[in-house]
Amino acid sequence: MASQTMVDRFVVGIVRGSHGITGEFKVESTSGEYEHFADMEEVTLTNGTVSKLYKVESVKAGSDVLYMTLAGINSPEAAAALNRWEIVVPREKAHKLQKNEWYIEDLKGCLVWYEETAGKTAPAMDEKSVVGTVTNVLEGGSGYLVEILLSESCAFLSDDIKFTGKGKSRTVYVPFKDEFIGEVDVENKKMQLMHLWILE
C-alpha cells in the first residue's frame, strides 16, 4: 500500500531524523520498498502546510531505511528541522503497484457497497446497497484500516448504526483484509464489503 496526497502526486516516504553532519537524513518508505528512490532527481517535502521542492543529491540504501541528501540541506540542524516531513513525487516516480496493491489516494472516494449475495460471482452495486464512502486508509497495528463514512440512505443499516448520538453520520474502520473487503475497483470508484456486522 502506498500513501499519497493527491491523485497524481504521492507521499513515498517520511523523513525520520538527521544522519551525520552533512545534512543527510533518514527516510522511511511508505510502501516498504526503496528501489524507486534511486530514480528520483527532485522531490517535494511537505509538512501539510508548507511544501518545498528540492534537487536530490544522493540516495543510499541502509537496513530498512534510506539515506538521502538534498541540495540546500547542508547541516544536521537543517535536516532535523525536516523530521516527520513527507516526501512527495509524481505518480510515475512512485513505487510500481503489484497485483492487489492500490494507492491510498485512489481508494479515497470509493463507494463501499454490500449485497446479500456478497461472495457470489459478479454481484452488482446500486444506490440502496451503498453503505458508505472511503475517506481514508490508515495503518493499524496489524495492517491497514479502511475509514468509511456511513451513508444516511443505506437500506441495510439501522439508524443506530448509521448515526452518532448527536445525529451525525458515523465513521467506522474496517480491516483491509480479504475476509472483510472483496472486490476493489478504483477505476469505477467502488469497493465491496463482505460483512455488515463489521460496521456495528
List the helices and strands and how they pair.
Blueprint (H helix, E strand, L loop, with lengths): L8 E10 L6 E5 L12 E5 L4 E11 L4 E5 L5 H5 L5 E5 L13 H4 L3 E3 L16 E11 L2 E8 L8 H4 L8 E5 L5 E5 L4 E4 L7
Parallel strand pairs: 7-12
Antiparallel strand pairs: 1-2, 1-6, 2-5, 3-4, 3-6, 4-5, 7-8, 8-9, 9-10, 11-12
How do you describe this structure in short?
The protein has 200 residues and is mainly β.
Description:
The chain has 200 residues and is mainly beta. It is built from 3 helices and 12 strands. It has a 6-stranded antiparallel beta barrel. Strands 10-9-8-7-12-11 form a 6-stranded mixed β-sheet. A hairpin with a 4-residue loop joins strand 4 and strand 5 (66-70). It is elongated and about 60 Å long.
Give the low-pLDDT segments: 3-7, 118-123
Class from helix and strand fractions:
mainly beta
Strand content: 35-45%
The largest pleated sheet is described as: 6 strands, antiparallel, barrel
Number of strands: 12
Shape: elongated
Give the helix tally.
3
Distance between the termini: 26 Å
Mean of residue pLDDT?
A: 83
Helix content: under 10%
Q: What's the order of the H and E elements?
A: EEEEEHEHEEEHEEE
- Order of strands, widest sheet: 1-2-5-4-3-6
C-alpha Rg (nearest Å) = 20 Å
Task: State the main characteristics.
single chain; 200 residues; mainly beta; 6-stranded antiparallel barrel; 3 helices; 12 strands; elongated; disordered N terminus
